[in-house]
Design goal:
Elements lengths: L6 E11 L4 E6 L11 E5 L2 E5 L1 E6 L4 E6 L5 H5 L5 E5 L24 E4 L2 E10 L6 E5 L5 E5 L5 E5 L4 E4 L9
Parallel strand pairs: 8-13
Antiparallel strand pairs: 1-2, 1-7, 2-6, 3-4, 3-7, 5-6, 8-9, 9-10, 10-11, 12-13
Length: about 180
């Protein structure tokens, strides 16, 4: 069984394409889906592996994907609006000019959010349904705080301690 901690979201199925089971997928990262051993979908709360039959570029941000066993538009429609996950072990990150490797915002779920040496909560989820993706941080009172996922607001990430330090504009946590 595949656990969520072993995976990262790499994209989302946005619509069907044609009558042979192809789907349009928006890919959120620089990865060749065809090179993955499988893609993973959340089906009724269970992470299920699927094998890629074919892929082809549709635009700069999207691909057409044919999944083995999904052979018509009715089957394809059942997986529309599903996130696509990949095994973290298969994701290769390129080093930036500082020699650091990147990671996905979804990798930070479960991290403690710190601002000005104060714990403001724990990252519970990511909301990427709009143009500006947000960390959903649950504070000690159970309230959800919305923090934009932007490099300029992230002061640092401590992967060992599972802490992310923010430098936020005044008043943003009051929204």
């Amino acid at each position: 069984m595949i656990s969520r901690s072993e995976t990262s979201v790499i994209g989302r199925i946005i619509k069907t394409h044609g009558i042979n089971g192809e789907v349009v997928v928006n890919i959120d990262c620089d990865i060749d889906v065809a090179e993955l051993s499988c893609i993973i979908l959340d089906i009724d709360g269970i992470l299920v592996p699927f094998f890629t039959e074919s892929t082809r570029q549709r635009s700069a941000e999207s691909i057409l994907l044919k999944i083995d066993g999904i052979d018509n538009e009715i089957q394809a429609a059942e997986i529309v609006n599903h996130d696509i996950y990949a095994k973290k072990e298969e994701l290769v990150f390129n080093e930036d000019e500082d020699g650091e490797t990147g990671f996905y915002a979804s990798d930070l779920i479960g991290y403690k959010a710190i601002e000005n040496d104060n714990c403001i909560g724990e990252i519970e989820d990511i909301d990427d349904s709009t143009e500006n993706a947000l960390f959903l941080v649950r504070n000690g009172e159970g309230k959800i705080l919305y923090i934009p996922i932007a490099d300029e607001y992230i002061e640092g990430v401590d992967e060992n301690s599972k802490i992310i330090r923010f430098l936020l504009p005044e008043g943003i946590l009051d929204l």
